[in-house]
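Encode chain A's predicted structure.
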Amino acid sequence: MTGLDDLRDKIAHIDREILNLIRQRMDLVDEVGIFKAEIGDSPLNSAAEAAVVKRYRNYAENNGLDADNSERICRAIMNEAVEREKNIAVRIKH
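Encoded structure for chain A:
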């Protein structure tokens, strides 16, 4: 294996870790979605979403990452989370 192959393998390993963490986050989102559905709360929460975006941007800025790119990643993850919560709400209502 070349040095480049080794680096690509390390990147692939980190990618798997990232996806595993996203899976864990979505498991928690499912729990939040069930809780919200049971109390009749909306899957959308603008204040909470703004706080998450701010957290991503602050972390990015403090760790040498591009804040705009980090926000795009954040919003992609949150969009998936909201869709999951919406689906949970529909299932629980029926």
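The chain has one domain: 3-93.
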